[in-house]
Specification:
455 residues; Rossmann fold; five-stranded mixed sheet; 48% helix; binds 1,4-dihydronicotinamide adenine dinucleotide; binds 2-oxoglutaric acid
Amino acid sequence: MAVSDHVDLDQFMAGVKKRNPGQTEFIQAVQEVAQDIYEFIDDKVRYHEAQILRRIAEPDRVVSFRVCWEDDNHNIRVQRGWRVQNNNAIGPYKGGIRFHPSVNESVLKFLAFEQTFKNSLTSLPMGGGKGGSNFNPKGKSDSEVMRFCQSFMTELYRHIGPEIDVPAGDIGVGGREIGYMFGQYKRITNRWEGVLTGKALEYGGSQMRPEATGYGAVYFLRNMLKHSGQDIEGKSAVISGSGNVATHAAEKIVQLGGKVLTLSDSGGFIYDPDGIDQEKIDWVKHHKTHTRGRISEYADHFPNASFHEGARPWQVKADLALPCATQNELNEEEAKALVDNGCIAVSEGANMPTTLDGVKVFHDAKIMYGPGKAANAGGVAVSGLEMSQNAERISWNQERLGDMLTELMDGIHEKCVEYGSEGSKGGGAYVDYVKGANIAGFKKVADAMLAFGVV
Ligand SMILES: NC(=O)C1=CN([C@@H]2O[C@H](COP(=O)(O)OP(=O)(O)OC[C@H]3O[C@@H](n4cnc5c(N)ncnc54)[C@H](O)[C@@H]3O)[C@@H](O)[C@H]2O)C=CC1
Ligand SMILES: O=C(O)CCC(=O)C(=O)O
């Protein structure tokens, strides 16, 4: 069949929209990938004939289930849970679990789809999956969270396993929740095995996993800057979020001599003109993880800082931007504000935080833009290393894992440069990191799928 006989990009996207009505986040994620992949496979008939992109954009399965639990007032509460197993061509499904009221099938399908490309980019053998629930951990007691996690795992355990699907944390799922879920899995199956990553060190966790996503996003930023002859030292940064990814990204920026000006949560952002140093970051980590308070309280604690209710930090003038909260938190107008204020590089700690229009602004302005699937891949990469350590019944030390994370992020950057450089390969040409990440991530998964035939 000639390439011209196949559906074009518009027809392909029309089909995706028709098959996934109302799933705006999923459609957005597929659109962003499909435009680059179509260009790449234009002259590669075998990918068309085998319908590879169409198959990656259709999850292997979506498991949806009821999660019933009892709150502290003895009310029976009913939530919905999901696991989206998008693609396991190159390894067991792998990806986090999100607990947030905004979670729905579209959000988890977009995350599982993105995860497939991200995990491929890491070079480790991991397929793509994602799960979660519309459960809101905010304001819940530890006992309520425990009962919810146990109920969630009581269904999820049938669908996962160290060689099948290995979940981890994401928004609203940190060390506490992983502990409750791992405990329940072990209790039900009577097996200790590396079925979850992001575990605490005492029961099979990996050094560097908590730091890996935020640090990795800064290493990716450093690599982009280095590629254009610059570095982080002396540069200012705006960061959104105040959770795992945001606080570790802030920590690494500070360690590399940069100045962090903002952090945020869903209530608004704080701006600290003195810079958010290590002591302040430690306060935020404790405040968010143990006190479970709001970022607004930062401004009460550090009086030179101001809190901006209901706003996002992108109007603040800075050299660097790291969106580390959630999807679609940076729109076209905010992207323009960053560019107009002289921002030279954006590295995404969050998944798909920039809207498609926002991404276009960055590309048109030719600033360095590292998309989440490349920039935040350090987290899942160290999760992959946690799986290896669990399988071998060993634990590597912090130094070794730190070096491995740096090397993995270097490798991801190199692949983006290889497939995303305009004009001559490398050599100072503008790098379209989105295109580089999409094509490099796609190629490995696609070639594996071709090897399997029609399955
Ligand atoms: N934890 C990990 O290893 C990885 C996380 N990510 C992504 O990083 C992002 C942040 O995740 P984590 O830090 O792990 O979660 P987290 O639960 O530790 O923190 C999430 C942060 O985002 C804020 N947030 C949530 N919804 C918001 C909204 N609508 N507006 C403003 N702020 C909002 C929360 O207040 C919190 O500060 C997510 O997009 C996640 O998918 C990506 C790769 C790995
Ligand atoms: O560590 C993992 O398996 C998942 C991390 C994650 O959810 C992500 O990369 O978005």
